[in-house]
Amino acid sequence: MDKVQIGENAGIVWRTLENKGSLSFEELQAETKLDQLQLFSAIGWLAREDKISFNKENGITSVRLYQERYY
What span, in angstroms and rounded, lies between the C-alpha atoms of 44 and 10? Predict the structure, then answer.
């Protein structure tokens, strides 16, 4: 896997989160059809770019698009 493929997978993950909202890793993998390495590489790419945030509730970690909020 190269950087181009990781970037393309990051786009798949980003569009999926934009359309579906917050998803667990399992739900995100099912929606994107990416294997585990592809999924976590894409999540790492998006996290490094500060595009996603993580939430852990009841032992389940979910991922969602990061939205800056100003109050």
Answer: 9
